[in-house]
Write a structure and sequence with these properties.
The structure holds two protein chains of two kinds. In chain A, helix 2 packs antiparallel against helix 4, helix 4 packs antiparallel against helix 7 and helix 6 packs across helix 10. Chain A is an alpha+beta fold. The mean pLDDT of chain A is about 85. Chain A starts with a strand and ends with a helix. Chain A is built from eleven helices and 24 strands. In chain A, the strands form six sheets. Chain A has a six-stranded antiparallel β-sheet with strand order 4-5-22-23-3-24. In chain A, strands 6, 11, 12, 13 and 21 form a five-stranded antiparallel β-sheet that branches. A five-stranded antiparallel β-sheet of chain A has the order 14-15-18-19-20, with no helix packed on it. Chain B is of the alpha/beta class. Chain B is about 45% helix and about 20% strand. Chain B is built from six helices and seven strands. In chain B, helix 3 crosses helix 6. The chains are: A alpha+beta, B alpha/beta. The interface between A and B is large, with 59 and 50 residues.
Chain lengths: ~550, ~180
């Protein structure tokens, strides 16, 4: 192994650009940071030996070196960004209508491009294996890049001597040479620098004044936060950590909460939609401007049940009430690891309709009433007056199908219609009635008796999001660490000054990783009462 | 000394790379598993369920009542036009394949039994029909479009999943596939 021994006596690892101790450029390594092209030294990572740039022997080293390249990391990020952007061109699969075949949908809706989009898997981009692989590789690159830079940087900053090589001093951005400086003047500068909270390290008249080294670790702290966030994001693919689903529940209905391993049921006691009062002087004007009612509250009163014991799916399980509560927007109802959020609603489905029977020519008479309950319909209803109603057909959401006969569009009673047979002592066989909302027909218009609606009950449907997210705290911790890293790197500045005695005078050099103006002010303050020459910005001289 | 350091570095790198690639492998594997999680595939064992019959007495338990038989499990509803169209084919083939050891079971996803009763009367259906009132079996079998039909082998594994309307000839072929030897 070729260690590099500097003339100051320090032994540097191979690949060192600037001696860890005295900063003297290691001659044959100057190309690594491009110092051979420039007058100024590149101070990145203190000119320390990034291992990746040197060893390249075993397969492990080769893989390591590949991921330790910032270039590779940047390309991974660019590719991920482009892919993410492409994923937003057409909707993701979860946002297309649920009942359609995605293969057909993308082709029909978006043509050839849509078909390509679908076939390349962009319709499910963010959960595709290759997208996750890209994210994971960014994580790998982040870890290896950080280790590969943090360790040597730490070493170089720890091992730095107060005494620096003259070449190192002369090739700093801030530099000045003063022919004659007294010891008192130097001590004055040191005192002033101490006032500014610089830490002074002296060695045979060579002085290093340093502050804010802490700031250099900011990026690495930041990366730790990022890695935690990445881990949290990847853990979301585990159903144990993260679940998101949706359920519609009708008022009065008890329904299985999906994605809970058939463990929980929810009963919708009531759905409440409240609006702002238009007579309230605070809201009146705004409501008028809007031209319609403005909702103030969406709420579901619900009871949660847990399944007791083991049942075969499909059998009505034994339910134990575990929670009762009110769900509002942003105020979920929590049960176990699951949270139920108010997400949507549908108003006014039919719950029950009450009919009365009367002679066709006498609307006011009443030969008996019955209530058709949509949740629990009977196949026939016996009326008090000796008449019987037989339900021949019930269409929850009626329409006329392409064969020209009535049929139902869904199982939900949004637009119910019925065919009732009326039987009675004075009716020969039965009379047919076709009834619906705004609809009351008999086949030949010669029925003796007629059915009319007298009352109806409506119910609402609530739409709830089911969420389980055990990764949130990890996201929070990651974000906090991320921010600490940002603050550390942004609000502290690593500033260094070197005083290098030469003959009767001194060489003065300064370096910082950011805010050169601030460093300049510190120097000006420190040397104000001396004849030491203010350093020149050698970058501007170039 | 330097050899020692070199070895340490090598070991360090191997450990770090191993941890990182284990993490990547975890991501990929869980991503593949997740795509399938809960979604039934051909070859899986058909999950058991028990539902009350509409046109018969008592409940049907898939794994008990139909053990050793091929089962055609048809998910349908009275409001689904294509479902209605395949019903007569199923009715025609039911007695023939029952002889051969294949059962036809239709799971209705309607909300009220009265509409199913009327439907059975109108179509004169004789094969067993069960009612999935709360949609639990629908969730268990990930039913999205209806009709969806599962053809289940006598050993209880899923031979075929059809998310489309069946024609008479296709239906016969699929039933032949699950006929016991």
């Amino acid at each position: 192994m070729n260690k590099v021994k500097c003339e100051c006596g320090h032994i540097n690892p191979e690949g060192t650009v600037l001696c860890e101790a005295c900063g003297k450029p290691v001659e044959h390594n100057q190309h690594i940071d491009g110092n051979d092209q420039n007058k100024l030294l590149n101070m990145r990572y203190e000119g320390s030996a990034r291992r990746s740039k040197t060893y390249n022997k075993t397969a492990v080293d080769k893989i390591w070196n590949f991921f330790s390249s910032v270039k590779v990391g940047v390309w991974l990020i660019v590719v991920t960004l482009v892919a993410s952007a492409v994923g937003t061109i057409f909707p993701q699969e979860m946002y297309i209508p649920p009942a359609v075949d995605p293969a057909v949908h993308y082709r029909d809706q978006y043509g050839l491009l849509g078909q390509i989009y679908y076939q390349l898997g962009f319709h499910n981009l963010y959960s595709s294996w290759w997208y996750k692989l890209l994210i994971a590789l960014i994580g790998v690159s982040l870890v290896i890049c950080s280790i590969d830079r943090f360790v040597p940087l730490y070493r170089a900053l720890k091992k730095q001597n107060s005494k620096r090589h003259e070449t190192f001093i002369k090739r700093q951005r801030f530099f000045s040479e003063t022919e004659y400086v007294t010891e008192d003047e130097v001590q004055l500068v040191v005192k002033k620098l101490k006032e500014k909270r610089y830490k002074i390290k002296e060695e045979n008249g060579h002085i290093l004044a340093e502050k804010g080294r802490f700031s250099r670790w900011g990026p690495y702290v930041n990366h730790i936060g990022l890695i935690i966030i990445l881990i949290a994001a990847l853990l979301r693919s585990l159903p144990f950590m993260y679940v998101s689903d949706y359920v519609w529940v009708r008022e009065g209905e008890t329904k299985l909460i999906p994605s809970t391993n058939q463990q929980y049921y929810i009963e919708n006691k009531e759905f409440i939609l409240e609006v702002y009062d238009p007579n309230d002087e605070r809201y009146g004007a705004a409501i008028q401007r809007q031209g319609e009612m403005i909702p103030s509250n969406y709420q579901t009163n619900a009871t949660i049940y847990e399944v007791e014991g083991e049942t075969i799916t499909g059998q009505d399980p034994e339910l134990k009430k575990v929670k009762e509560g009110e769900l509002r927007v942003n105020q979920p109802l929590k049960v176990g690891p699951y949270s139920l959020y108010q997400a949507s609603y549908q108003l006014d489905e039919f719950q029950s309709i009450t009919f009365k029977l009367h002679p066709t020519d006498d609307k006011d008479a009443n030969l008996g009433e019955f209530t058709f309950d949509m949740n629990n319909p009977q196949s026939e209803y016996q009326l008090d007056g000796g008449y019987k109603i037989v339900v021949d057909e019930y269409y929850p959401e009626v329409y006329i199908n392409d064969k020209g006969v009535p049929a139902s569009k869904s199982k939900y009673p949004r637009k119910p219609a019925f065919i009732f047979f009326v039987e009675g002592p004075d009716i020969e066989q039965y009379e047919v009635n076709f009834l619906g909302i705004g609809l009351n027909l008999s086949p030949n218009n010669d029925n003796q008796y007629k059915l009319s609606m007298t009352d109806l009950d409506m119910r609402d449907v609530t739409g709830l999001t089911v969420k389980k997210d055990r990764t949130l705290s990890l996201f929070l911790i990651g974000s906090i660490i991320f921010m600490i890293g940002v603050i550390q790197g942004m609000y502290w500045h690593h500033r260094r000054l070197w005083i290098h005695p030469k003959g009767n005078g001194i060489l003065l050099a300064g370096h910082t990783n950011k805010n050169w103006h601030g460093l300049r002010k510190d120097i000006d303050y420190a040397i104000q009462d001396t004849k030491i020459k203010p350093p020149q910005d050698q970058q501007q001289l170039n | 000394m330097t050899n020692q350091k070199k070895r340490n570095r090598f070991i360090f790198r191997v450990i770090v790379l191993f941890i990182l690639f284990a993490a990547v492998a975890f991501v990929l594997i869980s991503s593949f598993l997740n795509e399938d999680s809960g979604v039934l595939k051909e070859g899986d064992v058909a999950p058991n369920f028990s539902l009350e019959q509409v046109n018969g007495e008592g409940a049907i338990v898939l794994h008990e009542d139909y053990a050793g038989k091929g089962v055609m499990l048809n998910f349908w509803a009275t409001y689904c036009e294509p479902c209605k169209d395949e019903m007569p084919y199923m009715e025609d083939l039911y007695p023939i394949y029952k002889e051969k050891g294949v059962e036809i079971l239709a799971v209705s996803l309607d909300s009220t039994q009265i509409v199913i009763d009327r439907f059975i009367d109108n179509y004169g259906l004789t094969f067993p029909i069960v009612h999935d009132k709360r949609g639990q079996v629908m969730e268990l079998y990930n039913i999205v479009p209806i009709p969806t039909t599962y053809f289940i082998n006598p050993d209880g594994t899923i031979e075929r999943i059809v998310k489309d309307q069946l024609t008479l000839s296709k239906l016969e072929n699929y039933l032949d596939e699950i006929t016991p030897e």
